[in-house]
Amino acid sequence: MAKEKKLIYFFGKGNAEGTGTMKDLLGGKGAGLAEMAKVGIPVPPGFTITTAVCNLYYDLGKRVPAGLDAEMRKYMKKIEAALGDGCVFGDANRPLLMSVRSGSKFSMPGMMDTVLNLGLNSRTVQGLIARTGNERFAWDAYRRFIQMFGNVVMGIEKEVFEEIIQEIKKKKKVRLDLDLDAADLKGLVDKYKAKIKQITKHEFPQDPWEQLTMSRDAVFNSWNNPRAVTYRRLNNIPGNLGTAVNVQAMVFGNMGSASATGVGFTRNPSTGAKEFYGEYLTNAQGEDVVAGVRTPRPIVNLGKEMPQVYRQLRAITSRLEKHYRDVQDFEFTVQEGTLYMLQTRTGKRTAPAAVKIAVDMVKEGLITKGEAVLRVEPASLDQLLHPVIDPKAKIEVIARGLPASPGAASGKVVFTADEAVEQAKKNPVILVRPETTPDDIHGMDAAKGIITARGGMTSHAAVVARGMGKPCVSGCESIMVDTKAGKLTVGKVTVKKGDYLTIDGGTGRIIIGKVPTKDPEVSGDFGTLMKWADAVRTMGVRANADIPRDARMARQFGAEGIGLCRTEHMFFAEDRLPIVQQMILATTTDNREKALAKLLPMQRADFKGLFETMDGLPVTIRLLDPPLHEFLPKREELMVETAVMKAKHASQAAIAKKEKLLHRVEELHELNPMLGHRGCRLGIVFPEITRMQTRAIIEAACDVLKKGKKVVPEIMVPLVGIGQELTNQKEIIVTTANEVMKRRGITVEYSIGTMIELPRAVIIADTIAKEAEFFSFGTNDLTQTAYGFSRDDAGKFIKYYTDHGILENDPFQVLDEEGVGYLVKLGVEKGRTTRPKLKVGICGEHGGDPASVEFCHKAKLTYVSCSPYRVPIARLAAAQARLKEKGMGASVSK
Amino acid sequence: MAKEKKLIYFFGKGNAEGTGTMKDLLGGKGAGLAEMAKVGIPVPPGFTITTAVCNLYYDLGKRVPAGLDAEMRKYMKKIEAALGDGCVFGDANRPLLMSVRSGSKFSMPGMMDTVLNLGLNSRTVQGLIARTGNERFAWDAYRRFIQMFGNVVMGIEKEVFEEIIQEIKKKKKVRLDLDLDAADLKGLVDKYKAKIKQITKHEFPQDPWEQLTMSRDAVFNSWNNPRAVTYRRLNNIPGNLGTAVNVQAMVFGNMGSASATGVGFTRNPSTGAKEFYGEYLTNAQGEDVVAGVRTPRPIVNLGKEMPQVYRQLRAITSRLEKHYRDVQDFEFTVQEGTLYMLQTRTGKRTAPAAVKIAVDMVKEGLITKGEAVLRVEPASLDQLLHPVIDPKAKIEVIARGLPASPGAASGKVVFTADEAVEQAKKNPVILVRPETTPDDIHGMDAAKGIITARGGMTSHAAVVARGMGKPCVSGCESIMVDTKAGKLTVGKVTVKKGDYLTIDGGTGRIIIGKVPTKDPEVSGDFGTLMKWADAVRTMGVRANADIPRDARMARQFGAEGIGLCRTEHMFFAEDRLPIVQQMILATTTDNREKALAKLLPMQRADFKGLFETMDGLPVTIRLLDPPLHEFLPKREELMVETAVMKAKHASQAAIAKKEKLLHRVEELHELNPMLGHRGCRLGIVFPEITRMQTRAIIEAACDVLKKGKKVVPEIMVPLVGIGQELTNQKEIIVTTANEVMKRRGITVEYSIGTMIELPRAVIIADTIAKEAEFFSFGTNDLTQTAYGFSRDDAGKFIKYYTDHGILENDPFQVLDEEGVGYLVKLGVEKGRTTRPKLKVGICGEHGGDPASVEFCHKAKLTYVSCSPYRVPIARLAAAQARLKEKGMGASVSK
Fold it and tell me: How far apart are CA B826 and CA B763, in angstroms?
């Protein structure tokens, strides 16, 4: 850039010195104006001072390079010539007014400064009056200019001007700015000028050229205002890009009945239908369309009012859509019969519209299938897969929590899992808990939606709800839950057991009463788009599923296997928990084995169901993972019960029984269960658990093979951090599997792998890969241990961190590439030095986050695994990652 | 080794084919025998079959290479010639008997096999009788040979032979083997042979050559017996070294009154005094000296009984000590007036002896100061720094736990911290807790020793007790503590409050009653040795100390600064806890600041005390680290109290008050506090805490500077995992410090650094080093997060892991080089790419572990910091690490 000599680029009247590809030098807006001008679309003429000048400005200690002012004067002449209406910048009779706008390579909406109506002063305002015949318009334009210039260029607080207007309105006893007449506005101009003098000790500049150079420098300075700096930091925009300055002739839609202004879309942004869509007002300014003082008319009306302009507009916008090959969101102004395009940009759209438009445009030959795949934001697919609050419904939001699992649901409030099961027989219920634990699973299963007062986006409640495809609002800290009294309070609102609540898991809103919801319409286009995505992507997508119902859902959503079956979820079933507890409370191996023997047929049946459902697709089964005390009554509850029994003089026998249970629970109690006796540490200390689970898996596989179906079991050992741990478990698995296969006379093709979810496992991944036939990154635990964050507890300060810019994202939601990503890449690399074709997946929550899916693709993972409802998102994100890798730019409009 | 052609090496009669340096090829024993023979020391002649042959044996599928047997016959002739007494191997009249022993490069005591008296059969036993004139001796030798050969070579269980002996003794109604006469032993030989025939279907081999080759192969095979394989794995000895086989002529000390046998040391191994030390028996075998059937005489007596032999022995052993330049532990046998040395090896010694011997030998010019430094095992210094159980006392050990903090102490048992404080006013007390928490600190401070039922070597109790230099036995799981009833039970023993217990923190023993203890005598030699160590080492040694008393101790022990001052320990003091609680319970910043204002003068006084004590040495102060709820009453206890109050119908007001406290405790409750809202996360969310602590530090520094003393404060931000965290805290610290310095008009030279204790901090260490002026590795937390182990909970399965060979060491005790060490090295490397001279320390528990200190030296750390009592250990270990780096071998005798 330092070598770039040309400081200014002209655009206007079918001509431009720049092009649409020069965003680096001209900024997004400047490049867009150049492109429109070049292809002959009428834009008000202007010029762009390059980003290179901005950088020079800073290099020179906030001074513009020599010769810039002279160049600007030369270019102003070009503008006057292009307009050809006799208007001249600074001319007292026919004054040309200008706008001065920032424009950097990446859009930074509202972060930098703009000045409009530049060129007005005590003399030129008279020329404007003469030219427009509209005194009020001219004085209004002038006072707006002073207000904007005073704030942006001279640094005076907006409130200063606001106070002066309020004073006048009060005196006149009117409410709206519109109620002020020309004389009022003229008075306002004088008052503004006096105030500026008072504050700054300087006169408001009358010389239009001084106005222009001061505004230009103000735009350069605004590149480094605190707002812009913060925005760039949060959005990873480099600070050395600089901003361009666009100086453009003003046009006015309020110069009479042959003038108008409007906005529109080339297709319906809500439905995606191919129809011209928008609205306009005659004799009005752009802001009037938005302000709602006059009701704008549908754009088709323009065809009757100004048929020629309308035809021209349709032709231009069609051309723009073809040119940009995407839906355009445009602004236009008609000044005395002449159409000017002020802006065109990619139109924002809803998720269903995005899908329809992408598929339609492929059919129309406008874009390729690859481009269509890139046109839809993966995360937005959630809108297509879950019911939403009816947008027409009137609602009263009483609290907001984290949008933990999307979808909307209404139901009667219950406060315990047991109540949920009971009440759900009669009515839909919403389960409200301070936080959930695995104990609550049956209640969550029975409820239509879940609310928790504590816990983050990856708390137990959130993870399980997403797995179930059920709406959940977590970490709603403003709610006080009183489980015993059966009520919750938020501020002054109290909601009792049995009252109706509605939750919107997509936004985190909690709404009082029963609100109608709308089932989304999943059109055929959705299926078409997903097929195109699947054809493109190279990374596999599996689902996390524990039971056949989830597995069926996963297949419906296109999963290519189960990447994570959490066997412990099977342990929490109502009929099994007592047996599991019996196993845990056993003090001898013998008694433990007796309980395990009872669990065996149940686990075998579970696995059989999964294998049959997946019919030949791989099923990764993780051996028992959570600490055993999760299956027992809570320690503190037992303590309370025991103490209360004693206080109430219950029988010695009853107390002794309770105390015995408490004693065992105490023995198993851990201060930090996340870092405690869990994962493979269980299977090592209690090998009989691993033996039972292996037996159940291999026996189930034998049963299904016998029926002539294919089975691909992958046995996964959790939480390995030491080479010998895997060696130990693998030996038990192989020995047990061999016994079963010998007994059954059937050979099962199974593999043994491990979770990589501890930093130490990453470090010794080369050693682990000697034994492991596959890796699956547990990025939840890896994030916990890399950061030293407990998923269950970190919610509070992570929110503080993201609010205060210490973290960009919650690392439990978006995979932290710098830290956790480093570990993932290191683990893949080390693992494949030992076993070059090592299959590597990821089964943390990140498997369903689009940015994380892209990272996984780049890190050369074999597959990602996520909850069934996120499978389509992961498929689309994986396809986009592949396309980007092939050099196709992202062109998703968010 | 494959090229090594020579299979056998001879030694004996002032001659040897090998040398003492050939341990690789001849094993330790073979090399030692060769060396002794070479320098003319009388050893029974023999030959060594090399370790290369052992490897060949395995390469050939358990066959010896061709020609080995022929070589052995040739070498046997050499032995016969060297002896020159007419004895010949296998000769019926003057049979030569042999021993066959293993011997690998590294000593593997008792792991491999030995056969003695080889060469006896029905014919040669008669020759032995004739030659010795001692029929009982000959038959006893024969039956022992059969027993040993039957077991080692023929694989018959030892119990088989034992049963036969028992039968005969029962029949004769005698108790000892010695009570059996020649006829009995002859009968035993026959019975043994019959039994062998019955079990193996083979005759016991009569051919001495067959006996010899079978024994040789048995020794080779024993290299891979399970015992040896496990031992090698646990001691990191490679499996491909192989064992040598030493075949040596037997000599007998029981051939009459001119024969004798004995053992001795060249210096007193208990005190280190330079005196000839040992004992002997005439007409006896080696095992008789040990067996204690006859009382051996002090070795000086030998000077009267066999003056010539005695002079020869003194001359030889003096020579050996000079030759090996260390205390020798030797065995000798006098056979019919001829002295034979059977073994000489480095003598084991107590820690005080090790120090004295090392210093004496430097004075004698025998070794260099560097060698002296290498002669003392750093960990053994613990014995010099703490009282020990009087070795003469009779004790009853009732339980064993982990040796968590060394030293011995007796006291009356108490079960709560408050009781400890109360009772300690009258009597010494031992505090017994299920586990300790920071709440117990005042009780631990008052007690003479601490016992916990739960927790590992790095549990809270262990860490704090070591810091206090107080004995502690942790994780004594066999004890059932009933705090409420005021008693503990171990099996059938019950100990009540007020009963005396004695604990030995160096061994983990818990002893009933009051046992006399002995204060160690720290001689001047200790100081001399430490001075030499300091002169050698290049790595610094600091201490972890929180209060002036600890700091004084640290300086006495030679610490060069404070590497870790844990400010939270100041928060637990009795007079402060209520204010700390007030701060935590504050719901507004304002109220929080009021409480902090009360803490400020207290913290300032603390720091002033530390700065004054350290007088110019650096003091690293860590800002508040633990989760806040550690300072509040326990959640479960409040729950119980509330429930009991309700059950007993307490007043509503009292219940409400308790519930309010419970509510706040609930809000702060965390499922995994180790991974929760702690460390710099506190100072970020509550910046007023960081401000108060910084103010206290800088104000204290100003006060001390004013007195003309030097101050070197290093402010350390804990638990950083994200770059912005440090940026945030640094800004607060710098701003606050500037304010204080401006106000006081004094400039304090302070630095700001951070703990590196999270894997993510390691990964971004280059970024962190931009802000941090020093790093301190918190290897406790780093071990927790790398492994996903909670220090508080992992005790149970870590013990299982080390017992079952899944882990070699508890990684909280010995720094895990493979995993955590990788992170330390990576962190140092990354940090120094940004800041080449970055000061890097370690302040985890590992700072006092010798192996970990050596690792830290290799990882180029600037210093280690450990509890004051371990400072001498770290100083010595650091010196040894430096010496080893310079190529001086370790020659510590353990």
Answer: 8
